[in-house]
Amino acid sequence: MRNKVGLTMMGLVALLCMSACTSVKEYQKSRLNDADMSLSSRKSQKNELNFQTYREGSAGANGGKTGGGCGCN
Amino acid sequence: MRKICLTVVGLYLMMLSAFSQKSGFPDSVYTPKPLHLEEVNLVSSYYTQEGNHSAVLGGIGNEHVVDLSNGLDLKFVGWDMSHNKHTLSLGVGFDHHTAASAAYVSKTGASKPYGNRFYPSIDWTIENKKGNSFGFGVYYSGEYNYKSFGLELNGSHKFGTNTEVDFKASGFFDKVKLIYPSELIPSSTPATTGVSSYTTASGRTVYTDGRESEEVGIPSSPRTTVTGSVSLVQIINTRIQFSATAELVGQSGYLGLPFHRVYFQDGTVHVENLPNSRIKLPLGFRLNYFAGDHVIFRTYYRYYLDDWGIRSHTAELEVPVKINSFFSVAPFYRYYTQTASTYFGALGTHTAADTYYTSNYALSKLNSQFMGAGIHLAPPKGILNQHFSSLEARFGHYTQSTELYANVLSFAFTFK
């Protein structure tokens, strides 16, 4: 039940975001193109994502790899 | 006065023509540009960890780990006759780690407590004038007891200037070397000779009559991971953009590790046994907001579920504060919580009635917090010299409810 509520909430947030969209021209993207606005992990986070994958039971949907490497220790 | 005006106009035209030489797509006379080295990235990281729930010792024992990793990426860029941009990335990484628990693969603690990992990669991406792209990657990762070979296809399609859909499909084809705890190494006794033998972790075959074979012959078991993912990237306005990613991961093969012990209620010791398939579904959301002129809110949330009984939530907030146009400081905080896998049991809780069992605390009910700060430095004239274009440094402290804690310090250097 909690999972369904969570997924519904996420869907609603995504829909709200999309419905609030305005058309942004290329010359208006100076802030969006800032390096800190990138919608991906930072280069320096690569090894953080690795250790979290091995020390926790879940992984994925964050730009890290979902396979390869043991992380045995 | 006319002279001055003409001079100004002339200077302006000269500047225009000078900049047009640097344009990627001159319209009049277009010549393709061969691949040239555009960027070099070096990422180094130092990781230390302490804990007392080592899976090698069945959920008790020292989890001290030190890991030093270095990765180098070379990025080459060029344009072909059709104005397509080609990006070739060649990467190589090398890790060295020491792990206290690894010594106890042998019951006496005599096993090698350190190891290395080597992982080269190749990525090729082709992007057309509209910004749509297609690419593929080839990966390898090798360490003493684990080899991995991976392939990836990816692409992106832009819908207008504000929406993009990305897709990715990948497959990792791994081999797990079947190194068992020393007291659980299966031995064989052929009827013809009557002499038992077993293979040690270093690959030697030892016979009960005292002979030893130097031949390296530890068998391996396959593990396959197939992933498909779709992402929607959407610009909301001039200050906000978000992405939503759905990933489906299927794994099959040997999904446990052969040197993880499990102690049953009756005191007997066994090798961890987990199902040979696993389906994972992570759903990730990022939303970044540029507030005012100096502060950015980077947010991330992930919901995850799998068919081993794990449900997890991850929430992360990073707030880069721009001290000036080329220097920012970014504190961050991450909270993670998960339910336990159906197959997890602490030391001495599993029974012979259990088909699958593990005492690996990564699969237990837990929550964790990760906090720290990073800096990003990218002066327009470079750092020390014009080729050293940017530096990222980041430190984080990690605590887990299983009494595991870790520190990680990372640096990313970019040269252009």
Give an overview of the whole structure.
The complex is a heterodimer of chains A (73) and B (416). Chain A has 73 residues and is mostly helical. Chain A has helices at 2-19, 46-55. In chain A, 38% of the residues are buried. Chain B has 416 residues and is mainly beta. Helices cover 5% and strands 56% of the residues of chain B. Chain B has one helix spanning 2-20; strands at 33-50, 65-79, 85-99, 114-127, 133-143, 146-159, 163-177, 197-199, 205-207, 212-213, 220-235, 240-253, 261-263, 269-271, 277-291, 295-306, 311-318, 321-324, 327-338, 366-377, 388-400, 405-415. In chain B, a hairpin with a 3-residue loop joins strand 6 and strand 7. The longest helix of chain B is centred in the first third of the chain and has 19 residues, at 2-20. The chains are: A mainly alpha (73), B mainly beta (416). The interface between A and B is large, with 51 and 108 residues.
